[in-house]
Amino acid sequence: MHPFGRFSDGAKEALTLAQEEAERARHTYIGTEHLLLGVVRVGDGRAATVLNGMCVDIDRVRRMIDPLLGRNAPQKREQGIIPTSRVKVVVELSFEEARRRGDGEVGTPSTSCSVG
């Protein structure tokens, strides 16, 4: 099974939105900043709920990230947009956390849970 086959629909949506954010910025990579934007854009997952509770919303994230990243000139991509090594680490950590919890998939469920 492809590793992303173990992602919930919400997690897959966050990755898709992260790619859209990278394309919007004309970047040739998907970085953790794009992943954050994707997670916040999903809106109904646990991560987005926690971030929104801390007054972190899409507009605020964009205002903070955009000046730091800038926009690249359009570039021809042979292989498409690729994730950075940091994003790969985040994905691996998400698999490890899912295994630790005994979950079969990585996700951003909207169900409540106890934190401890």
Walk me through this protein's architecture.
It is a single chain. Helix content is 55%, strand content 3%. By secondary structure, the chain is mostly helical. The chain has a single domain (3-101), classed as Clp, N-terminal domain (Double Clp-N motif). It has a two-stranded parallel ribbon. The termini are far apart. Residues 110-116 have low confidence and may be disordered.
CATH class placement: Mainly Alpha
Q: Could you give the order of strands across the largest sheet?
A: 1-2
Helix content: 55-70%
Q: Give me the count of strands.
A: 2
Briefly note the structural class of the backbone. mainly alpha
Find the CATH superfamily.
Clp, N-terminal domain
How far is it from the N-terminal to the C-terminal residue, by CA? 32 Å
Helix-strand pattern, N to C?
Answer: HEHHHEH
Number of helices: 5
Average pLDDT over all residues: 79
Protein name: Clp R domain-containing protein
InterPro entries: Clp_N_dom_sf, Clp_R_N
Domain Clp R: 4-116
Keywords: Repeat
Protein topology:
Elements: H1 9-24, E1 29-30, H2 32-42, H3 46-53, H4 58-69, E2 82-83, H5 85-101
Parallel strand pairs: 1-2
